[in-house]
Each structure stands twice: as structure tokens, then as C-alpha cells.
Amino acid sequence: MKVAELRTTIRNHSKDQLELLVVELYKAMPKSLREEQDIDALVRCPDAQEIRRIKSSKKEVLDFDCVADEARTFISYAAHQYYFAPNMYVPKRERPKWRFVAKRLYRSLVQCAADPENLEPAADLVEELYLLLCKGCRVVLFSGDDPFGSVGIPQVEFLRQTLALRNRHMEKDKFVQKAVALAVNGTTSRWTVTTDLLFVVLEFLAIPDLKLRAIAATQELIAQRLSAYRSERDSRKRYRIEETVNDLTELAFHCYAHLGEFEEGIEFFNTHYTDKDEEVKLYVVVEALHHCYNQPELILDQITKAMAKGVRPRSRLVKLAESIEHSLRETDPR
After folding, report:
1. Could you give the residue ranges of the DSSP H alpha helices within 39-118?
2. Of 145, 264, 305, 321, which sees the most CB atoms within 10 A?
3. What contacts 101, CB < 8 A, 6 or more positions away?
4. 186 by DSSP, 3-state: which?
5. Cβ distance 147 to 141 under 8 Å?
6. What's the pTM value of the predicted model, to 2 decimals?
7. For 165, how many CA atoms within 13 A lie in the half-sphere containing its CB?
8. Whether the Cβ atoms of residue 258 and residue 246 lie closer than 8 Å to each other
9. Which one-letter DSSP state was computed for residue 96?
10. Residues 6 or more apart in contact with residue 96 via CB below 8 angstroms
11. How far apart are CA 148 and CA 156, in angstroms?
12. 110 near 122, Cβ under 8 Å?
């Protein structure tokens, strides 16, 4: 039913019928929709809807200082769990609305970044907001267990926007270092795998020079992480360091692969990947070559060499090798 038809239909309804209709419509609305659209305020003051409609039709000019102050306050409060636990700073009724505040601030900061004077500080706050939601995937900061899903912005898209802002004002070396760090340092959401974030970084490494800089950045970060690993005694922190080193190694491998230097990438991978099981290393490399790159002969070569060294590949890899051999025989029956 269109709005004009709705108006015509309810025009002859009685007061009691309209009251019943409004109540039933209110009950049918999801709580999140009522909060996002501020339906309670509209019910208390229906005339405000007309004012809101007129204001929304005009292009909103944001005051960056006000947006920045609100963003800093939100990030600070969220980091202190004020949107989750009882406290004197955020009223109970306001805590569930954090997702709408975060989304509005994200959009406002991106809009403010269009002004060159605001670009860098706005990018700083977008990055802080991104890292805050990453942290919320690991520790309890909000009521939901997937902050990016609650806000309605996929983590991949949030990182892409963050890097797009950074790319507009940072020198290339610093940007590459920042991009690599952001891809591997933040906790992933339940619907995101780290490889997705690595490929977002690769989107910004459009020329060979940037890919080479990224490889150098991964080498530097791997050295730093391994140095910290040797002095770390906490087993959980040691495990997280190993994960980070593996993510950096995977990124460097993909940089080499995008340069067409597959052998160098595989050598780098085998040197730096922390898992001591050679079969696991083989599996990760082959999966990357199989799903991301069209390199059947290289896959077969890697599996054959590994088996010659005594590695026993899992059945999935054995079947893949057999399938490739069959395909190669069909294309070249000799």
C-alpha cells in the first residue's frame, strides 16, 4: 500500500480505531527500528515529524569539531564498557543505542573528511572507531557479540574506508606500514577471516613498488613480533603473536604472487610461517594457489616435492593432485 492510499484508507477511521491501529503498528515494529527512527519521540510529539522532514531535505552541514568531540567521547566511554555495564555516564536506556551512535559517527566523520582541512583528524577518528569495534570482537564492550554486524557495516568495508582516507593524506611508505598493521592487528568479527582483510590491503597496492614496500613492511613487523615472542611467557599472548606472524607471512606471499614471483613467495612462506608441521604449511600454500591463483602445475609440483621429502598430504590434497594430473594428461596426451 502506498502512502497516498494509506491516507485515504484511514481518513474515515474513528479515534478508537486509529488508536488501536497505532498501538498494533508500534508493537509490530522491531525494537531496533523504533530506536533508530526515534519513534518514541515521534509518538510524544507528532508535529515534530514535519520539522524533521523539512530539515532532512536540506543538505546537512556538519560541524567537525562537534562531531570529533562526540566521537572521542563515544570511543572513550565504549572502551571503559560504559555501553555495557552499569555506570553514571551512560543511562541504561541509552546503552542499547550505541550501534546507531557508532554508525552515525562513522558516516559523519567520512563526510567531514571530504574537507581537506579535516581529512587527517577525521581519518584518525575513523581508524580509532575501527579498532574499537575490532576490540569489541575480542572483549565485551557492547551488548552484542559482533560489533560490525550490529553497526551494519561489514568489517571489510570499514577497513576499506579507513585505508581510503589514510591513502589520501599519508606518504606512501607510512601508508603501506599503516595498511599492513591494520590488517593484522585487529581482531576479526565472526563473519570475517583475516585473508579478506589482507586482500583489502592488496587493493591499495596497485603498482609493483607498493607491493615490494609491503613485503619489506611485513619483514620488519615479523622481526619485531618474533623478538617480543622470545621474551613473552604468557601462552595466550605467545599464540596471538604466532597468529600475527602467520598473517604477515600470508600477506607477503600474496604480494609476491601478485608480482608473479610465486617461487619467491613460497620460499618466504616456508621460512616464516610458524607452524612446524610441514603438511600444514603445504596445505595453506596449496589452498591459496588453488583458490586465488590459476597455478595447477605449481600446485602439483609443490605436492610432489613435499611427498618426496616424506610429507604425507591429507586426502584433499592427494585428490587435488590426482585431478590436476588427469587434466594435464587430457590437455597433453603425450
Report:
1. 39-44, 48-57, 64-79, 98-112
2. 321
3. 74
4. coil
5. yes
6. 0.81
7. 28
8. no
9. G
10. 31, 35, 143
11. 10
12. yes
- 266 by Cβ neighbours in 10 Å (0-12 / 13-18 / 19+) ranks as buried
Q: Is the pLDDT of residue 292 over 70?
A: yes
Q: Residue 25: which region, alpha, beta or left (left: phi > 0; alpha: psi -120 to 50)?
A: alpha
Distance CA 265, CA 257 (A): 6
Cell of 100: 546507531
Helix (H, G, I), strand (E, B) or coil at 146: coil
| Distance of alpha carbon 246 from alpha carbon 231, whole angstroms | 19
**Residue type at position 178:** K
pLDDT surpassing 70 at residue 281: yes
Identity of the residue numbered 2:
K
Q: How far is CA 182 from CA 51, 151, 166, 198, 207, in A?
A: 42, 19, 11, 9, 20
The torsion angle over the Cα atoms of residues 137, 139, 145 and 148, rounded to 10 degrees, is -30
Closest CA to 162 of 212, 119, 206, 102: 119
Q: Strand runs (DSSP E) across 105-189, as ranges?
A: none
CB atoms within 10 A of CB 150: 21
Angle (CA) 171 177 178, round 5° = 85
The Cα 182–Cα 97 span in angstroms is: 27
Question: What's the burial of 213, exposed, middle or buried (CB within 10 Å: 0-12/13-18/19+)?
Answer: buried
How do residues 216-245 score in pLDDT, each as one tens digit?
999 999 999 999 999 999 999 999 999 999
- Scan for cell 557492547, then name that residue: 142
The Cα 53–Cα 239 span in angstroms is 53
User: Can you read off the three cell numbers belonging to residue 70?
Assistant: 562526540
Torsion of CA 106, 110, 112, 114, to 10 degrees: 180
The per-residue pLDDT for range 102-157, each reduced to its tens digit, is: 999 999 999 999 999 999 999 999 999 999 999 999 999 998 889 999 999 999 99
The C-alpha cell that represents 28 in the structure block: 509490530
